[in-house]
Design brief:
12 helices, Rossmann fold, 279 residues, alpha/beta, disordered N terminus
Length: 279
C-alpha cells in the first residue's frame, strides 16, 4: 500500500471537498500560488474512480480474476496518470464533492492524505446559487437541466434533495464528519477563508504538514469562464482578485432562508463528537 502511494504520487496528494459555493475554487486559486502545490476546480478523477470500482465489482463476471491488490493498483494509477505532469514536482490537491463520502477508500489508497472540506452557512449557499440564476436571466443553467419555468422554491427543493447539488454534498459531508476517518478532515468555513485568509491558509499548511507559504491575497488569479459558459452558468467559478468578505442582504424569501438555517451542523460544538478540526 505504501509503495503504491510513493510511486504513484511522489510528493503526496490531498483533497478538497465539501459544499458547493463554499470557497473550494477560491481555495484552489490561492493554493496554486505556491509553486510546490497543484490545485484547481473539480476534476474528473472521482468519476473515473467510481466507474472503475463498478467495473471491477461482481457486476462484471470477469471480476473473479481481480483481487483487491489489483483494484488498489488500478485506482492509484488513475491518479498517477491524470496528474503525471504535476506530481513529479508538486503536492497535488484533487477537488470533488464526492470525496467526503469516500474517506475509507482514500485512506486505503493514500494513507497520509488529508481532506479540506469547504463549508458555508447553508442558507447563503442557496442564496449564492439563486443569485447566479437571477444574474443570468438570458441563460438557462445546466444546474437545473436548463429548465426555464421553475420558481426559487422548486430550485431550492431540487438543490437540497439527496441527489441535488447541495443535498448530495451535504449528505457526503455528514457521512465523513461522523465516520471513523473524520480525523482526516479539516472543515474550512467560507467565512474564515474570506475574512481571515492568512489564518485559514496557515491552518491548512499545519494540517497537511507542509511548510508555510506567504500568499498574496490581493492578487488571486483563476479563470474558468469557458467551462461556466458551456454549462449555462456564467460566474459559477468566478474568483475575485482580492480575497475579502462581503456583506449583503439575502435574496431568498424569508421562509426559505429559515427552512435551511439549522442545516449548518458544524456550527454546534455539541455535534462535533469526534473533534473534527474546524477553522
Amino acid at each position: 500500500m505504501e509503495i503504491l502511494y510513493e510511486r504513484g504520487m511522489k510528493h503526496g496528494i490531498h483533497f478538497i471537498s465539501g459544499l458547493p459555493r463554499s470557497g473550494s475554487t477560491l481555495l484552489g486559486a490561492i493554493l496554486r500560488q505556491n509553486p510546490r502545490l497543484h490545485a484547481g476546480m473539480s476534476s474528473p478523477v472521482s468519476v473515473l474512480v467510481t466507474g472503475l470500482l463498478r467495473q471491477m465489482s461482481q457486476d462484471n463476471e470477469a471480476a473473479v480474476f481481480i483481487d483487491d491488490a489489483q483494484r488498489q493498483a488500478v485506482l492509484t494509477s488513475v491518479f498517477d496518470a491524470y496528474y503525471h505532469r504535476e506530481h513529479p514536482t508538486k503536492v497535488v490537491f484533487d477537488t470533488n464533492r464526492l470525496w467526503c463520502a469516500k474517506l475509507a477508500l482514500l485512506a486505503a489508497l493514500f494513507p497520509r492524505a488529508k481532506v479540506i472540506c469547504c463549508v458555508r452557512h447553508v442558507p447563503w449557499i442557496f442564496d449564492s446559487i439563486e443569485r447566479l440564476v437571477q444574474r443570468n436571466v438570458f441563460e438557462p443553467s445546466k444546474i437545473f437541466n436548463f429548465d426555464t419555468g421553475s420558481t426559487v422554491y422548486a430550485r431550492v427543493d431540487g438543490l437540497g434533495s439527496g441527489s441535488g447539488m447541495v443535498g448530495f454534498a451535504w449528505n457526503a459531508l455528514r457521512e465523513g464528519f461522523y465516520g471513523e476517518h473524520s480525523d482526516r478532515m479539516l472543515l474550512l468555513r467560507f467565512e474564515t477563508l474570506t475574512s481571515e485568509p492568512r489564518r485559514a491558509l496557515a491552518a491548512i499548511y499545519d494540517f497537511i504538514g507542509e511548510p508555510q507559504f506567504e500568499h498574496d491575497f490581493q492578487n488571486v488569479e483563476f479563470d474558468a469562464s469557458e467551462f461556466d459558459a458551456r454549462i449555462g452558468t456564467p460566474g459559477l467559478h468566478a474568483v475575485g482578485k482580492v480575497v475579502r468578505a462581503s456583506e449583503r442582504e439575502t435574496i431568498l424569501p424569508p421562509d426559505l432562508f429559515r427552512r435551511v438555517e439549522q442545516d449548518s451542523f458544524w456550527r454546534d460544538p455539541a455535534l462535533n463528537k469526534r473533534g473534527v478540526a474546524i477553522v
